[in-house]
Write a structure and sequence with these properties.
The chain folds into three domains: about 110 residues; about 70 residues, Winged helix-like DNA-binding domain superfamily/Winged helix DNA-binding domain (Arc Repressor Mutant, subunit A); about 80 residues, Winged helix-like DNA-binding domain superfamily/Winged helix DNA-binding domain (Arc Repressor Mutant, subunit A). Helix 1 runs antiparallel to helix 4 and helix 4 packs across helix 5. A three-stranded antiparallel β-sheet has the order 1-3-2. The two termini are about 40 Å apart. With about 300 residues, the chain is mainly α.
Length: about 300
């Protein structure tokens, strides 16, 4: 219930009384808990001070004995005063515990008997816990959105992820750090950028994402993908890309060593076509390029 709606229903004076009641309940509960803790601590505290006091009395024992020999009746009132002080000190923790328990008990009893007290207690004590639970639920939803987007856009960098989900810098950094610390997300540095992906990816997938095909080699893969299983000869690739024979030979050698391209025929100068690994690398590189363009 919003404050505006509450004000419209019970009025400003009623809302003020409700808030004052909430503050009163919180103050009473805090004082009651403090009294219980203080009483419990005092009852379980060591008796070092008492022992020290007994030692001091022992040091003065001969003098007291001399005084008792002179006037034995005068020592009795002093002992009675000491007994009263000791009794008052021993009952203080019990009074604190009794007072704290009584305050909490009155709140509980009032909640059962009077509805307005019940509402006030719930608003004062339960609503903060509910707000915290709501915040935790919102955090889980935000992390779920991050994981879902990272699963569909592996290798995306921080700024692109932040802008795609419409999150603030601090919120994005906090949740990514939490996900990475729990092993659900991995990240790596790419120049001035930091890229992220879900941790359930295989080692080969992570390797392709971290080292996407770019430049001339990506152009070669694109051209070979259009040719299908028939493939293209070196001369046809050079004419399409307008590159030298030496440059094409170098890049084809690297792509073949990486098992991204393969010979389509058994000829001495065969046509070249994409391998299965090459097709997967091409799809990954296209996705990374798409993400970078969108960012």
């Amino acid at each position: 219930m919003s404050n505006q709606f509450t004000t419209a229903v019970i009025g400003e004076g009623g809302l003020r009384r409700v808030m004052e009641g909430v503050r009163t309940v919180r103050l009473v509960a805090a004082l009651a808990v403090a009294a219980l803790l203080a009483g419990g601590w005092m009852m379980s505290a060591p008796l070092d001070d008492i022992a020290e006091g007994d030692g001091d009395d022992g040091d003065k024992l001969p003098a007291s004995l001399d005084s008792e020999e002179d006037s034995g009746e005068e020592s009795q009132p002093e002992l009675r005063r000491g007994e009263k002080e000791e009794d008052s000190e021993s009952t203080l923790p019990e009074r604190l515990i009794a007072g704290g328990a009584g305050a909490l008990g009155s709140l509980v009893l009032g909640s059962f008997m009077l509805e307005f007290v019940k509402v006030t207690v719930l608003v004062a004590l339960v609503s903060p816990m509910l707000a915290r639970m709501k915040a935790n639920r919102e955090d889980m939803l935000t992390r779920g959105r991050l994981l879902g987007y990272l699963e569909a856009n592996a290798g995306i960098h921080f700024s692109a992820l932040r802008d795609a989900l419409g999150l603030a810098n601090g919120v994005t950094a906090y949740h990514l750090h939490t996900l990475e610390s729990t092993g659900q997300v991995i990240s790596w540095r790419d120049g001035k950028l930091r890229r992220y992906a879900i941790s359930s990816l295989s080692r080969e997938e992570v390797s392709r994402i971290r080292n996407p095909i770019a430049g001339t080699r990506l152009a070669i893969l694109e051209v070979l993908a259009e040719s299908g299983n028939i493939g293209l000869s070196g001369t046809e690739i050079r004419s399409k890309l307008e590159i030298s024979r030496q440059l094409l030979s170098h890049h084809l050698s690297e792509l073949r060593n990486g098992e991204l391209v393969e010979a389509a025929t058994e000829a001495r100068r065969p046509n070249w076509r994409l391998s299965d690994n090459g097709m997967e690398a091409l799809v990954t590189s296209r996705e990374v390029a798409r993400i970078e363009a969108a960012a």
